[in-house]
Amino acid sequence: MDDRRGDDGKGRGVRRSSDGRGGFRAGEGRSDRGRGGRQQGRPERDERGRVSGSRDARRGSDRRAAGGGAPGGGHRDDARSAERSTDRRAPSGPPIPDDVTPQDLDGEIRRDLLTLDRTTADEVARHLVMVSRLLIDDPERALLHARAARQRAARVAVVRETAGVAAYNAQEWSEALTELRAARRMSGTSALLPLMADAERGLGRPEKAIDLARGAEGRALTGDEATEMRLVEAGARIDLGEPEKAVVTLQGEDLDPSRTGTAPARLFYAYASALLAAGRVDDAVTWFMNAAAADLDDVTDAEERLTELADPATRDDRTPSPSRVESAAAVPDTDATTAGGGETSTSVEVPDTEVAADQTPDAAQDPTTADESVPSDDVSRDAVVRTPVDHTDLSVTDPTGDDASAEKSLAANYDVLLLDLDGTLYAGQRAIPGATEALSEVDNPSYYVTNNASRRPDEVAAHLEELGFSATAEQVVTSAQTGARLLADHLQPGQRALVVGTDGLAQEVREVAIGVTRSADDRPAAVIQGHSPDTGWQQLSEAALAINAGALWIACNVDATLPTERGFAVGNGSMVAAVANATGKQPIVAGKPAAPLMDDAIARSGARNPLVVGDRLDTDIAGANTVGLDSLMVLTGVSSVADLLAARPEHRPTHVGPDLTTLSLPADRSRIAPAPGWTIEVSGDVITVRGDDDADPSRVLPALVAAAWEAGREKAPQIRADGERARAALGDLGL
């Protein structure tokens, strides 16, 4: 709504324009998540961080989408008679200054009032002008005028919309929702949905806001309305304590820092606030800077937020207490179990060497949230902290939890599939049996997200095509690309990096304007390490020499093993561990389970609600949890059922299935939760399974896993079948 007077002195009424303000306004959310943006100074904020009296935002350039009333054309006698009767019964309403005339109202809005008799139309017009004048500085009085207009013209859509917007700005959430629903029914537009969703937030119902955002009409919004809905959804995610999902929600928008104006400033501010709530402080500072640069009209308080974050005391007060430091995570630990159920061969323990001064001892041993490290003195950067994502309560985040969604196939509940490669689609030179057919049966766009940095995207796509999958280079997101991007973030163009890896990795580095060397004698500013079958003592020694001389260290991934058709070979993580042992340093990690690769995949795919699919708990599934996404674990690669039963919370998937055919099955078949017909009893280290005669065998594994997690098993339990039904079902799983 344009709440300012035009150059001709006319009030524009409460009508949406194309400026795109509103919703999750300038990063608003709960007060403990970050403040809303500034509108004409520093208005008061309520306990939710919403700006009292801020200007409404959700406007489309189409006035009919703005909830305009009936088409023009004369005064209808029946409407005139009804409104006269209403006017006689209505109280006089708040006083209106004599200098306010009906002609002060925008002509388009006045035409919506032609269904009223002349006296009533003039009175309503004057009240609407007063709403426009008062909305910012005195929202309570503006609401009184909006109510007076509504009492006289309750059948005019633009009047009901005005009443809804005024109630919204006065923080009368229930009244706002009632009026906006009425305006939507009368006008037939979905453009009011973002405002309605944010009113649901005001009522303390963020889950309903998300339902509106993710419903069919919410997803069908386009342009400014679609962006506004994403802003509201992000705010609702923060309300629910899901800041990582707020980050993901906004990553599908146009986050081009070169854009300027009110709409980009608000979007950047919202994204910065979500990053801050997620504990990604350095990233948040970057986007507050982008918001301040874009904010030509000073509608946000981005500059003040930057000042606050520059104060260490304030920064400490406003960011989560780190239980992990992202810079310290590098290599998997040795607590997991192998596919065979014994001690792991898929992770390598780094000896207890000296930890960098800015790292905590716990952080040095925990790779699950790594995406930053403490760089060398000549490339300094603060360590970034991240609050671990808690996926133990799957019903809160899993869209397949309701009955309607559960009846659909698993894939149909998501917009994009983010697929791992090794162990999920293929092993070495052979496709996993049934994988090509399974993917051909689902309609979702597929993006291939791999920790393997040895090949370039066009090579990966060609290999996938050879195996029968449909793939283009644009659909392939590699840890080599992300590692190169991190180099570009930390170094200046023209600086040099020592590459430990294939020529493909070296070319990715060159393409971000960083020079390439293979020798520590060239005094590189950084080392980037990715998988190569040709890596040996000489290459690892060059890396150690450069790192010890002060070079920044980036590891493309820390997978300790690499699945092949012959079994598990040595992976990049094992070679990273050798360098870590020799230097006492830990790298920045680009690939899963760290956030950077997942962030790049989300941005590349434009996904709003993707499903991560993979075979490794410590990389694929942990990576999904790091950025707050749902995941499907398939049993075709590294991690086994035994691993899954004893999985730590940060390694737990949302769904589990034997292979990719699970994508086409009803979602409730794979969702990890108790299942009808199956009784799971846990006693000590023994789990007993019994099934009714009609129990669905495909649901025993999710039910078994749910019971093991509920019991808090730290190691794989013994499993006993009670009855033939259970024995057959467990036998099919190799248990």
From TrEMBL:
Bias (Basic and acidic residues) ranges: 1-19, 27-65, 74-90, 307-319, 378-393
GO molecular function terms noted in the UniProt entry: phosphatase activity
Gene Ontology CC terms: cytoplasm
Biased composition (Low complexity): 327-349, 356-371
Record-annotated GCN5-related N-acetyltransferase-like domain positions: 676-735
InterPro entries membership: GNAT-like (IPR041065), HAD-like_sf (IPR036412), HAD-SF_hydro_IIA (IPR006357), HAD_sf (IPR023214), TPR-like_helical_dom_sf (IPR011990)
Region of interest called Disordered, as start-end residue ranges on this chain: 1-106, 307-405
Pfam families in the record: GNAT_like (PF18407), Hydrolase_6 (PF13344), Hydrolase_like (PF13242)
SUPFAM superfamilies given in the database record: HAD-like (SSF56784), TPR-like (SSF48452)
Protein name: Haloacid Dehalogenase Superfamily Class (Subfamily) IIA
Organism from which the protein derives: Williamsia sterculiae
